[in-house]
Amino acid sequence: QVQLAESGGGLVQPGGSLRLSCAASGSIFSIGAMGWYRQAPGKQRQLVATITSGGSANYADSVKGRFTISRDNAKNTVYLQMNSLKPEDTAVYSCYATVSSRYGSRYSNYWGQGTQVTVSS
Questions:
Q1: DSSP secondary structure of 77-88
Q2: 110 has which bridge partners?
Q3: In degrees rounded to 5, what are phi and psi of residue 73?
Q4: Pair 20, 7: CB distance under 8 Å
Q5: Which of 82, 107, 84 lies closest to 96 in space, CA to CA?
Q6: Of 13, 56, 101, 117, which is the most buried if we count CB atoms within 10 A?
Q7: How does pLDDT run across 6-54, given as a tens digit for each residue?
Q8: DSSP string of the chain, one letter each residue
Q9: Cα–Cα distance between 113 and 121 in angstroms, integer?
């Protein structure tokens, strides 16, 4: 099995910054794409950012220029640096990873438990 452990959420004022981390552990042979989703109360889940194993990143239009996704392959960890935060960024942020547990096996998606980010004055 594979576990994803998130950290870094919390309460921040508008214009502030937070950095989320998500570390994968367990039965891991290879990790493909990693990324972050968010879900605000009463709204659909939204893809925030993704990053390939080679470091190619994509972002939702709403966060471009403010959020930066990165990863440390040696640590099986993905990060989300969030700057210039707005109240509309308030949501539960969940990380995911596509993982192959042994050589030749297919990749499966795994999810973290989610971390709350609240942007409020």
A1: EEEEEE-S--GG
A2: 97
A3: -65, -30
A4: yes
A5: 107
A6: 117
A7: 999 999 999 999 999 999 999 999 999 999 999 999 999 999 999 999 9
A8: -EEEEEE--EEE-TT--EEEEEEEEES-SEEEEEEEEEE-TTS--EEEEEE-TT--EEE-GGGTTTEEEEEEGGGTEEEEEE-S--GGG-EEEEEEEEEE-STTPPPEEEE---EEEEE--
A9: 26
Phi and psi at residue 68, to the nearest 5°: -135, 125
pLDDT in the model for residue 104: 87
CA angle 13, 18, 24 (to 5 degrees): 150
Residues 6+ apart with CB under 8 A from 42: none
CA-wise closest residue to 5 among 19, 20, 22, 18? 22
